[in-house]
């Protein structure tokens, strides 16, 4: 499929440019900081000489575009600098915390698609009925509370009052899982520990659901709207005139064309989840990027802030790239027209 | 054959919303014999398309629609059939051509997929290569010279006229005994519409299919059909062999319709050749301007 | 107007939206009169009466230093609404101006403006606000700056898309032919066509600004104690789950009620104004 390849290259190019823009923006934000990061890092007891030396090491005395130049140079080597908070390379820190966050988001994404799309299809089939109204209310409620509120409510209901799920953490302490990919759900299976896998799954269930809730509602609502619109299109009437069974029309004729807008919103929801993961992680004591992110922000740890935001934005851009690719695979019109951009 | 192929008897259709009821058809009767081409003519909103959808059994399953009277197809009362039996009939014994060919073909399917799906209505075991072969043959019959390319295309990659021919080929590939054509090609320009009708006429003759042509344009109908029904506000106001109706319209509405037909030449637009190379230069650029 | 009233008052969900929003706005406006303990919005400490479950005197219970939760939630509503109104009244004009200019002018102006918008939009919303809060001191004013900075690009994109369509319309071409100025075309001809979409989006967004602002303060990056804020109240109470459930559940539900109300209202407006977002 050369057309898909062309589209992918074009999008990849744009994404890299946008990421460069993001790095500039974040860099600019990080440098307008009031107060001296070197002083903050070394604490009030450090001498003037020590602070000056650190300022020089961090190139803080040079003009901002030169600092950005150093930053880009380091970035091209895969270096994001040293964290002043942990005294380790930022890349090491991120590599340690990112997998837990990604795992949470991926499971939430699966929940969002796996529950949102079917609910939307169901609502479209029963337009104006009870199920339709129910989905509408669920969707509106889902987006109406920040995910930390849902996290609290789910935790109270299903961990305290009905102790079906563990309260916090990623996995029970008695399991010893070697770090292979960093994704516990994968590592437990690779190590052949089925019990540990089940335990990890039970741990991730509530946080992932809390994170997915607003996305489930939105995906359901949008899918419903698009399915309803597709059902009124001439090609569905034509399919009916050829006597195809209704389930086949729903599955084969209506679903695919109405999927494009749903996929677009899923891309956007992914962005929201990357941010909301911070909120859910805080409630469920999930050892992901959240605690690290908030800690480095509160300590004005420049390199760590820039690195964290950059990685999150990159994850977002990659997710959008995947969404674009899926849309192109589903929708031939986009594949053949926008591929030439 | 004692029965007509299609017999509609005092068909009434009403749409109900919470507040009011709208009568779309107020008891129309018409029949079509095998091999016969019949036209149903009337202005938009007169109830033509509703009739077509009722014959196909597409209205029966919708909420808020009241149907009275009788529709008999091959001597069988359609209302007595189960939903699934009505469905069985569609696409095999009765098929339909829609007004707008481009939006009536699914945008995410290649043309060959459409053919495969439709062929599977009669023969569920048909393979893609076999379907392709049958489709190519059928596409040649609708004067498509490069069926291979067309089969591999998506609807938006083809012109409106091409899509229209694809629709005709799809409608006829299962050799239905009745073809319903709802304003075929009105969404296209006049020359393409004319070609479409010529093609359709030739093909239904070959396939020995009966046709119910629905149109608002008497000029189109004149060349195509054996008999005409004129429908006005949900009632049949005039019927008869085409020649007779044109020669001596009785109902004032028919006269008004006839008066509205533009008369350029005796037989409408002159037959155009498909082959572009026949359009020699002077046809495109007048020598005086070249 | 009659149709609008009909849509607004004929459906249970729209009525619910009007009622919820009415309640929230009224309780914010008249917090001084409704709140049983108005002084509890500040640094009052009452250790004889701390961490009490809901009861007759404190219908939503008391917090860890004995302040009435209900009173604090009323004042938190006031703060949230002020924040939402201020953020949107800055973010909307900025975004609209950028979108109009980029959509109508084209060329390098469009390139620079829209690529900048794209950059802002490609950082997950909450993360952008967090990193801005990171460099600034966590105060109410800075919180407003952070949320405003992440909000304007959405209006820029919305107005840009509408402008792209409208500038090709006959009435704009006609105005160009008779020699109307660019300012006239942008603000008198095109802008009114964006208004339904902008108003609908602002209604929905008022809820979402409250939501994002509460998320920031939940992370400790927003309004600081003792100012009553729904997000920081949830964060404080979360450590005392499940025993002191009222500490988190009531502020959490308060956010839900306010945002849900604006969502219902925005949904009804979307239909009344025919705005396609």
Write a concise keyword list for the protein shown above.
heterotrimer, B: 290 residues, alpha/beta, Rossmann fold, 2 domains, 6-stranded mixed sheet, 4-stranded antiparallel sheet, 37% helix, globular, C: 277 residues, mainly alpha, MetI-like fold
Could you please describe the fold and organization of this structure?
The complex is a heterotrimer of chains A (341), B (290) and C (277). Chain A contains 15 helices and no strands. Chain A folds into 2 domains: 3-76, no CATH class; 90-298, MetI-like fold (Orthogonal Bundle), CATH 1.10.3720. In chain A, α1 runs antiparallel to α14 (302-330) and α7 (147-161) packs across α12. In chain A, 76% of the residues lie in helices and 0% in strands. Chain A has helices spanning 2-31, 37-42, 48-57, 64-76, 90-125, 130-144, 147-161, 184-190, 194-231, 234-241, 246-254, 259-284, 289-298, 302-330, 332-337. By secondary structure, chain A is mainly alpha-helical. The longest helix of chain A has 38 residues, at 194-231. By secondary structure, chain B is of the alpha/beta class. Chain B has 2 domains: 1-33 and 47-81 and 226-290, no CATH class; 91-225, P-loop containing nucleotide triphosphate hydrolases (Rossmann fold, 3-Layer(aba) Sandwich), CATH 3.40.50.300. Chain B has 12 helices and 10 strands. Chain B has helices at residues 48-56, 83-89, 101-104, 111-122, 128-141, 147-152, 160-172, 190-207, 218-224, 242-247, 252-259, 281-284; strands spanning 6-16, 21-32, 37-41, 65-73, 76-77, 94-97, 178-182, 210-215, 227-232, 235-241. In chain B, the strands form 2 sheets. Chain B has a 6-stranded mixed β-sheet, sandwiched between helices. In chain B, strands 2-1-4-5 form a 4-stranded antiparallel β-sheet, with helices on one face. In chain B, a hairpin with a 4-residue loop joins β1 (6-16) and β2. The termini of chain B are far apart. Mean pLDDT of chain B is 82; it is low at 279-290. Chain C has a single domain, classed as MetI-like (MetI-like fold, Orthogonal Bundle). Chain C has helices at residues 2-10, 12-29, 31-34, 69-105, 107-121, 125-135, 140-166, 170-177, 182-218, 230-238, 246-273. The longest helix of chain C has 37 residues, at 69-105. The mean pLDDT of chain C is 87. The A-B interface holds A 233-235, 237-245, 252-253, 256-257, 330-333, 336 and B 56, 58, 87-92, 95-96, 98-100, 103-108, 110, 117-118, 121, 154, 156-157.
């Amino acid at each position: 499929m050369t057309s898909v390849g062309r589209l992918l290259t074009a999008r990849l190019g744009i994404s890299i440019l946008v990421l460069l823009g993001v790095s500039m923006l974040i860099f600019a934000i990080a440098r307008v900081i009031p107060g001296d990061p070197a002083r903050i890092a070394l604490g009030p007891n450090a001498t003037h000489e020590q602070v000056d030396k650190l300022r020089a090491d961090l190139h803080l005395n040079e003009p901002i575009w030169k600092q950005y130049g150093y930053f880009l140079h380091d970035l091209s080597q895969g270096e994001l600098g040293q964290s002043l908070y942990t005294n380790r390379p930022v890349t090491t820190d991120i590599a340690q915390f990112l997998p837990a966050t990604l795992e949470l988001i991926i499971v939430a994404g699966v929940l969002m698609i796996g529950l949102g799309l079917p609910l939307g299809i169901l609502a479209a089939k029963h337009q104006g009925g009870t199920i339709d109204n129910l989905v509408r209310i669920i969707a509106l409620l889902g987006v109406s509370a920040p995910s930390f509120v849902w996290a609290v409510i789910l935790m109270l209901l299903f961990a305290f009052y009905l102790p079906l799920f563990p309260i916090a953490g990623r996995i029970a302490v008695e399991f010893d899982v070697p770090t292979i990919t960093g994704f516990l759900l994968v590592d437990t299976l690779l190590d052949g520990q089925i019990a540990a896998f089940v335990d990890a799954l039970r741990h991730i269930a509530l946080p992932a659901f809390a994170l997915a809730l607003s996305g489930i509602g939105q995906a359901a609502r949008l899918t419903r709207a698009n399915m309803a619109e597709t059902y009124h299109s001439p090609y569905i009437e034509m399919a009916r005139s050829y006597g195809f069974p209704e389930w086949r029309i729903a599955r084969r004729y209506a679903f695919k064309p109405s999927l494009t807008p749903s996929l677009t919103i899923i891309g956007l929801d992914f962005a929201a989840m990357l941010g909301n993961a911070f909120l859910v992680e805080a409630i469920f004591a999930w050892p992901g990027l959240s605690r690290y992110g908030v800690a480095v922000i509160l300590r004005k740890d420049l390199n760590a802030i820039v690195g964290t935001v950059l990685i999150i934005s990159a994850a977002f851009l990659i997710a959008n790239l995947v969404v674009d690719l899926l849309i192109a695979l589903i929708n031939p019109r986009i594949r053949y027209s926008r591929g030439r951009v | 054959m004692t029965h007509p192929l299609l017999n509609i008897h005092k068909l009434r259709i009403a749409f109900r919303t919470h507040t009011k009821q709208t009568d779309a058809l107020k008891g129309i009767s018409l029949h079509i014999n095998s091999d016969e081409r019949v036209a149903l003519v009337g202005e938009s909103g007169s109830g033509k398309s509703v009739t077509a959808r009722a014959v196909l059994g597409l209205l029966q399953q919708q909420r808020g629609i009241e149907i009275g009277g009788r529709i008999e197809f091959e001597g069988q009362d359609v209302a007595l059939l189960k939903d699934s039996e009505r469905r069985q009939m569609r696409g095999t014994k009765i098929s339909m051509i829609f007004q707008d060919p481009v939006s009536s073909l699914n945008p995410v399917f290649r043309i060959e997929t459409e053919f495969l799906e439709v062929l599977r209505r009669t023969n569920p075991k048909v393979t893609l290569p076999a379907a392709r072969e049958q489709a190519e043959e059928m596409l040649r019959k609708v004067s498509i010279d490069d069926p291979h390319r067309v089969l591999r295309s998506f609807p938006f990659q083809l012109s409106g006229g091409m899509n229209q021919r694809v629709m005709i080929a799809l409608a006829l590939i299962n050799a239905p005994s009745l073809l319903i054509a709802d304003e075929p090609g009105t969404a296209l320009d006049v020359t393409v519409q004319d070609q479409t009708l010529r093609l359709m006429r030739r093909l239904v003759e070959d396939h020995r299919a009966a046709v119910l042509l629905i149109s608002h344009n008497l000029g189109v109908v004149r060349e195509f059909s054996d008999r005409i029904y004129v429908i006005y506000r949900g009632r049949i106001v005039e019927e008869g062999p085409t020649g007779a109706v044109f020669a001596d319209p009785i109902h004032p509405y028919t006269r008004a319709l006839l008066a509205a037909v533009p008369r350029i030449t005796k037989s409408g637009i002159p037959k155009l050749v498909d082959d572009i190379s026949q359009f020699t230069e002077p046809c495109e650029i007048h020598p005086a301007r070249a | 107007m009659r149709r609008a009233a009909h849509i607004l008052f004929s459906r249970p969900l729209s009525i619910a939206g009007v009622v919820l929003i009415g309640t929230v706005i009224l309780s914010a406006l008249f917090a001084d009169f409704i709140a049983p303990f108005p002084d509890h919005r500040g640094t009052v400490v009452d250790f004889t009466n701390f961490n009490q479950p809901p009861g007759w005197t404190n219908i939503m219970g008391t917090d860890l230093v004995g302040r009435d939760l209900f009173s604090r939630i009323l004042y938190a509503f006031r703060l949230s609404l002020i924040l939402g109104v201020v953020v949107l009244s800055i973010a909307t004009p900025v975004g609209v101006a950028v979108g109009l200019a980029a959509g109508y002018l084209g060329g390098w102006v469009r390139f620079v403006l829209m690529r900048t918008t794209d950059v802002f939009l490609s950082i997950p919303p909450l993360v952008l606000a967090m990193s801005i809060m990171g460099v600034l001191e966590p105060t109410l004013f800075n919180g407003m700056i952070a949320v405003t900075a992440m909000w304007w690009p959405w209006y820029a994109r919305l107005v840009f898309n509408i402008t792209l369509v409208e500038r090709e319309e006959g009435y704009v071409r006609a105005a160009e032919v008779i020699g109307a100025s660019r300012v006239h075309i942008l603000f008198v001809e095109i802008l009114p066509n964006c208004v339904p979409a902008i108003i609908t989006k602002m209604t929905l967004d008022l809820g979402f600004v409250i939501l994002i602002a509460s998320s920031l303060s939940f992370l400790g990056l927003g309004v600081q104690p003792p100012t009553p804020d729904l997000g920081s109240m949830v964060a404080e109470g979360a450590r005392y789950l499940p025993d002191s459930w009222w500490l988190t559940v009531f502020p959490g539900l308060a956010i839900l009620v306010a945002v849900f109300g604006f969502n219902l209202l925005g949904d009804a407006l979307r239909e009344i104004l025919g705005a396609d977002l």
